[in-house]
Amino acid sequence: MIFSSALAILLALRGRHILAGIVLGFGVLARHLTLFAGAALLVAQLRQRGLRPKSFFLSFAILGLVIPWLFLGAYCLYLYLTFDDALMFWKMRSDWGSLAWWGITTLLTTTESNEHIPIMYSYLPIALLPTIGAFALLAKRQWYELASFAIVLLVVLWYTGIWGLGRYSASCWPAFLPLGVWLSKRPSWQAPIIALLAVLQGLFFFLFSHGYPIL
Predict the structure, then answer these.
(1) Which of 18, 33, 161, 195 fits a 20 to 30 Å CA distance from 68?
(2) What secondary structure does DSSP assign to 42-60, as a single string?
């Protein structure tokens, strides 16, 4: 997800839009959330060709925005031919229970008692860092493509994906660029902050993957 989205956006920034769409398509096969990086590909094309509809829709580059959806369609076809259910990858989420669809409003207003709820609350303060970073990308025009991907992904996660907020906010790599720029000017802060973030990510990944409750 991280590699394919980064490479696709790099190619789009260099004007190689069709190849960018192909790379992003392979990323969709790894994680369907990679599709949200298509927002960056769209912004790249709009910035390079302007807001003129004729220039935008009559260019072969627009195929780069369609190709990732074709990859998703091919995967759905595979699921249909193999399991008789084209949307199996989406429906399987319901097997995780109602928590898989919770957003921030549901979490804050629920009266339900569940051992997993403290885990979900523990994601919130850590996820604030990339969320702030995502909106900070709007500070510079050259970051608009990255901002579109990061903001769209994180808004979706906060709205209907708190259960995956920890790992997916960590994989939202554009959101860490403002922090990287800030740290580049403060060498003494680099090692402590990077080490702290690495430990937190490793800790949460280990506890989450082994099903240990975080109290």
Answers:
(1) 161
(2) HHHHHHHH-S-HHHHHTSG
Largest Cα–Cα distance in the chain? Answer: 57
b/e per residue 158-186 (b: at least 16 CB within 10 A): bebbbbbbbebbbbbbbbbbbbeeebeee
How much of the chain exceeds pLDDT 90, in percent?
Answer: 61
Residues 6+ apart with CB under 8 A from 47: 144, 145
**Euclidean distance between the first and final Cα of the chain, in Å?**
30
HSE of 8 in the Cβ direction (CA atoms, 13 Å)? 34
Q: What is the pTM of this model?
A: 0.87
Average pLDDT over residues 116-137: 89
Average pLDDT of the residues in 157-171? 85
Q: What is the mean pLDDT of residues 163-181?
A: 89
Nearest-angstrom CA–CA distance, 100 and 95: 9
Q: What is the mean pLDDT of the chain?
A: 89
Q: Which amino acid is at 151?
A: I
Span 56-83, average pLDDT:
93
The answer to whether 157 and 165 are in contact (CB under 8 A) is yes
* Domain boundaries, given as residue ranges, for the chain: 1-95, 97-215
Q: What is the SS3 assignment for 31?
A: coil
